[in-house]
Amino acid sequence: GAVVSQHPSWVICKSGTSVKIECRSLDFQATTMFWYRQFPKQSLMLMATSNEGSKATYEQGVEKDKFLINHASLTLSTLTVTSAHPEDSSFYICSASGSRGVTEAFFGQGTRLTVV
Amino acid sequence: GQNIDQPTEMTATEGAIVQINCTYQTSGFNGLFWYQQHAGEAPTFLSYNVLDGLEEKGRFSSFLSRSKGYSYLLLKELQMKDSASYLCAVGRGGGKLIFGQGTELSVKP
Question: Per-block average pLDDT, block size 10, for chain B (109 residues)?
Answer without folding.
Answer: 90 97 92 93 92 95 97 98 96 89 96
